[in-house]
Structure formats: structure tokens, C-alpha cells
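pls design
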């Protein structure tokens, strides 16, 4: 299969590109810079120069592909306004990619976050949130899933808040970088809230399975660790960096503050059983042991 990917050089995308190529697929991937293009070429993929806002480039990439994986998202989390712009850019890109696949029965794999459900771990049957700071992403994914009725074999991978590799990535990575800058391994809230996680290489396997076999209109959870206490994450980070571990103001984490304080464990039981997906790489707490001063 010839697969077109956006976001192919991020933590998740790098793993997905490697997984697809190892499985015998060919990959073309969007590259915003010469550096990204060089990284993709070194990985065995064919770079396509352009950014997520270059809609004609996206159309051409999808038109020439047997399947599409949408992973790219703005890395500007500096303010709520920046986050809103990033969500809008992603929505436009996903709409263009999806429209190009209408009537073709080609696979289209999109991504969102796992939902949060008070008092229990969320499952694949739970709806995405209809309010909150990232509700725009939920709307984009729901619009993409509607393409199942228009001849697109679309599926959605719900990623946990931390997709990690080599001690970095996701919300836990933000905890680490904030600790480096502040001199305190801080956690928001009371630290008892739980965050799910998955290793990037395990998530990549699920993206491949969705691309290859997932039925149209289906939703899957890429969750390996159902929920680690945020205080436990901070304690490992503090020990690795030689910093004190303390509760800090929620506002320390800017636009992410409302999400960081939520208890949001998630299950992947249905995904594991149905797609025979089984995570095999190290847990987040074990991976954080790779954090260096």
C-alpha cells in the first residue's frame, strides 16, 4: 500500500513511518522543512514538501495514495489562541484529505485523544467531549468518521495524553521540560489524577492495523497504561533530574491546565480483543527512567 502521512517526523509519526515501511508499505510524507525532508528520506520515506495549511499539496498527496494517515498538529501551545488556531488548521487539513478519498473505499486514519469519564476508565464506546479546550478536535474527528457513509474506510485512533519514547513525549514530557525550566518537578491538582499512556512504537502498530483492516467508522484506543498517578510521574522526573517534587499552581501549565487536572484513565480492552493489538514496549514510568539531567 502507498500511504500518505502528515506529521511523519514527530514522536508518533516517526514510529508510524518505521512500522509501515517494515511491514512492506511505501510511504510519502509531508515535510515542512529541509530537516524534516532529510529525516524522512533517511527513514525510507518519500518527502513531499509543504505544510499543513498547503491544502493543494494535501489534495495531491491523498489523490496519489492508497491510504492516508493524518497525524500533523501545530506545536504552538503558547496560549489558548494558538491552540485554537492549531485546531482550526488541523480541521481544514482533515476535511481536504477526507474529501479527496470520498467514494474510493480507501483507508483514512485520523487521531484524537481518549475521552474522560467521571469515576471510571473511558472505553471505545464513550463519545468524545462536547465541551472543553480541545472540543474542536473532537468535532473534526466526528466529521471525518461521517465519511464512512460516503465511501471512505475511515477509522479513528484515540491517543492517550502521553505517547512516549526514550523518556520524552506527551504530557509527561511537558512535566519534564517545565521542571527543567523551573527547578521544581511540579504536578498540578492533588497529583492523584491518572493519565493513560502508550509507547510510540506500540501506538504505531495500531495505526498500521487500522490502516490495513479496521472497518469504516470505527474507533480504537491506543492505551497501554490505563492510568498513572501524576504525582508518581513527577516523582520519577524529580529523582532523575535531582529536583524537589511539589504541587504547583495549575496555571503553571498554561493552556493545558484544565486538562492536566482531570482524572482521565482509559481502557483499550475492546481494541486489544478485536484487532489483536498487544503493547509490548516499556511503560511510561519505566521509560521516564531514561530522563537525563
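designed seq:
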Amino acid at each position: 500500500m502507498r500511504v500518505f502521512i502528515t506529521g511523519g517526523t514527530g514522536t508518533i509519526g516517526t514510529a508510524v513511518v518505521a512500522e509501515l515501511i517494515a511491514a512492506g508499505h511505501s510511504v510519502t510524507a509531508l515535510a515542512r522543512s529541509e530537516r524534516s525532508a532529510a529525516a524522512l528520506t533517511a527513514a525510507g520515506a518519500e518527502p513531499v514538501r509543504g505544510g499543513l495549511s498547503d491544502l493543494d499539496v494535501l489534495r495531491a498527496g491523498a489523490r496519489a495514495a492508497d491510504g492516508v494517515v493524518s497525524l500533523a498538529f501545530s506545536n504552538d501551545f503558547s496560549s489558548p489562541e494558538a491552540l485554537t488556531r492549531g485546531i482550526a488548521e488541523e480541521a481544514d487539513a482533515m476535511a481536504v484529505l477526507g474529501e479527496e478519498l470520498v467514494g474510493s473505499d480507501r483507508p483514512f486514519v485520523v487521531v484524537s485523544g481518549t475521552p474522560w469519564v467521571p469515576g471510571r476508565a473511558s472505553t471505545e464506546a464513550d463519545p468524545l467531549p462536547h465541551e472543553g479546550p480541545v472540543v474542536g478536535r473532537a468535532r473534526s474527528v466526528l466529521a471525518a468518521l461521517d465519511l464512512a457513509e460516503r465511501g471512505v474506510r475511515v477509522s479513528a485512533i484515540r491517543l492517550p495524553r502521553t505517547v512516549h519514547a526514550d523518556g520524552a513525549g506527551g504530557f509527561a514530557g511537558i512535566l519534564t521540560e517545565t521542571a527543567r525550566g523551573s527547578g521544581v518537578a511540579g504536578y498540578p491538582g492533588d497529583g492523584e489524577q491518572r493519565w493513560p499512556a502508550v509507547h510510540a512504537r506500540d501506538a504505531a502498530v495500531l495505526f498500521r492495523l487500522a490502516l490495513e483492516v479496521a472497518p469504516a467508522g470505527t474507533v480504537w484506543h491506543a492505551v497501554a497504561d490505563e492510568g498513572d498517578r501524576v504525582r508518581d510521574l513527577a516523582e520519577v522526573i524529580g529523582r532523575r533530574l535531582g529536583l524537589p517534587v511539589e504541587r504547583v499552581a495549575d496555571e503553571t501549565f498554561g493552556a493545558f491546565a484544565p486538562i492536566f487536572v482531570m482524572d482521565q484513565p482509559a481502557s483499550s480492552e475492546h481494541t486489544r480483543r478485536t484487532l489483536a493489538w498487544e503493547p509490548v514496549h516499556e511503560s511510561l514510568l519505566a521509560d521516564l527512567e531514561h530522563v537525563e539531567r
